[in-house]
Each structure stands twice: as C-alpha cells, then as structure tokens.
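Bench notes, afternoon.
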Amino acid sequence: MSEGEQKTQNDLKRSVVNERSGSTREVFSLAYPLVISFLSFSIMGIVDTFIIGRVGTAEQGGVGMGQTLAWTVFSFFTGAISALTTFVAQAYGAGKHDTLAKWVTTTLALVAPMSLIGWLTIPFLPTLVDMMGTTPEVRPHVLTYMIVRIWGMPFILLNFAFSAFLRGLGDTRTPMFVTIAANVVNALLDVILIFGYGPIPALGVYGAAQATVIATIIGAAMYARVYLSAKHHAAFGTRHLAWPGHDYIVRFLKISLPVGGSWVVESVSWAVMTIYVASIDPAGLAAHVIVFQCIHFSFMPAAAISIVASTLVGQYLGAERVDLAKRSARTTIFWGTAFMATVGVAFYLLREQLVGQFNADPEVIKTGATLIIVAASFQVFDALGITTSGVLRGAGDTRYPLYVQFGAAWGLFIPLIFLFGKTMDGGVVGAWIAALTFIVVLAVAMVFRYLGGKWQKMRVA
C-alpha cells in the first residue's frame, strides 16, 4: 500500500470526535453539500413539471400526480433503505469499521425483493387510478409516467443505499456531485425526449419519465464506483459482498421497517390529498402540483439538515459522547428551523410570481397563490418535525415516529381533507388547511419525544 493510500485509509478510520464536534461549523460543513443535493433532487421534479407544462396543462397535472403516486410506491422501500445511515454512523462512531460493509450488503440484499414487490403493483395501476376519480384528461399521463418510473425502481433503491452509506461516514460531498450530475442528465434528456430532436421523436410525458430513469441509472453507477473504490475497500472491505447473515438482516429490519412505514404513511396521506384535488378540476390540480413542487424547495434542504442530525447523533452516540450528540441535535434543529422560516417569508412575498413561472393561466395563479400562503404558514412547524425526527432516527428511535404519523395521518389529516375540502366546500384550499393542521400536530409530538431524552440512551450497532 502506498503512503498516499495509507493516509487515506487512516483518514477514513479517524475518530469522529474533534474540536468542531457538534458545532455550527461542523453542521454546515456536512449540510451545505446535502442542501445542494436535495435542492438538485427537488429541481429534477420541478424541471419535469416546468418543461411538460409547455406541452399542456393536463400533461403537467399528470406528471405531477404521477410523481406523487410513484413516490408513494417507492416511499416504504426508500425509507427503509435510508435507515442504513444510522447503522453506518453508529458503527463508524464506535470504531467498528469491519461491520460497515456488512450493513451495506444487508441493505443491497433487500433491493431485489423490494423491486419485485414494486413491479407487482404495475398491473393494478389502471384500476387504482380509476378508483381515485382522476379526470379523463389527466389519467393517461399519470399512468404513463408512473409505469416507466416504477420499472426503474432498482436503481432508485441503489442510489439510496450507497448514498446512505456515504452519509453515515459523514461524506456528503460525493452524493452532492452525483445528484448534480444526474440532474444535468435529466434536464438535457427532458428537452430531447419530451420535444424530440433529430431522429428521436417527441415522446411527451413518456419522455419525461424516461429521462428521469436514465439519470437515476447513471447516478447508481457513479455511486457503485465510489463504494467499490480501492480507498473504501482498504478501509472497510467494501468489495466483500458475502451474505450478511440472519442476525444483520433481523437487526436492520427491526429499525428500518418503521422508517419505511413512516415514509409511506406520509406519502399515502399526500397522495390521498392529490387524488382528492385531481377529482375537482385540472386548474386546481395544476395549482396543487406547482405549490407541491415549491414546498419541496423548503422541505428538501430541511430534510438534508435532518440527515446531518441523524449522522452526527449516530456517530456521537456510537462513540459514547452523549454530550456531543445533544449539542449536534440542538444545532441542527436551530438551523433547520431558521432556514424554513426564511423560506416561508419568501413564499408569502413572492406567491404570485412563483406560480406564474409555471403556468400563465389566471385561475391557476389565483388558486396557487392562496395555497402558497397556507404552505408558508407551516414552514416552521415542518422544520421542527423534520429535524427532531432526524435526531430520533440517528439514535434508532424509529417506532415512535411511525405510531405518531400513522395516528395523525389517518385520524386527522385524511378525514380533514374531506371535511374541509368537500363537506365544508373548501376545495383544494380546504385540503391544504388540513395539511397545515397535520404538520402542526406532528411537530408538537416529535418535539415532545425529543425533549423526553429517551433517544440519548439508544444504540443499534
């Protein structure tokens, strides 16, 4: 091994405790690449919505709804796989470097069965979309987009697995570069495949979906190359892909399945909301889709800070430095909330301009501007819920968030969608007020759990 390789290996195996531990500087050094990554990921959906809007309003609504429903199918599996960050972070913090590749292999072993389950939903999609009351203009575009995206599911899961490993180590720059590269590919292919270029015919919605799948495949290949590199193999034995064993799989599923459950509960809740809105009129659906993409602008960076919380809390709990875990938790919660509060103000001040960038229809702009006011109102609460959930997840406390989300979604959010929207004739605005109520209740419950301090005593690796 050369001197440079030895230094790289030693750097990867260094102690997680240093003079910056738990500080704003440490949080920002990890967060800014993740913020860029998540913004780039969000932009991928915005680009699809923006470009397809030049084709037609029904196509735009179909892509937006297709994105939401496809993510509902993905959410359980991507959520479960994302729990790998907790295992890697705690093992890395504890200095158990020989176990890291085993946790990744455990996750990779789940990609094939998870993808198969996702594919099995495809024959039922037409019936499902019909049962949702989707308008005839939007229906074919929803189905086209969903089917293509679901076929690409294995590559989405691989992206999540490899990025979770790197983030558990505290490497947030590599996911940033991979995500940006994939986003550039998606944008270029969107223009080519949606409108056609040279011998390539205009594929419309089908082209938008194909562009995203191809970009995801390229991203997975880039991640795999990094994971199997000589550097990571020398430090963690990443090229040893032996079966991880029953104990690893059981331990991983015990923590990861509640995370997947939480993700799918939230995704289903928002999907039900989208389904209800789709039954009203195309203009209301277009406004909903536009605002939903806009809140991804605020949600994704906050989710990035939440991942930083999971990484740092996991690493410091693994190193038995509860004091630093608490310090990291406080820092991430503060900055996540500050960011989303700022975005909330910007949403309110620029509401009409934001909607107008996506659709020039006056009815869409009027409805969308009202929805953005509602979205601006829940930014701070959403930040508190997201960041405290990240802290709990870093410790391995995943069951409580599942129970709370399930109860709040099915006992509050979904009933209120139809109460405020249909019974009280609030329409799409009433549905968004139901979302505001759900987010506030969820935030209060997560903060209560965080302040209880049980997470400080938990370990998974």
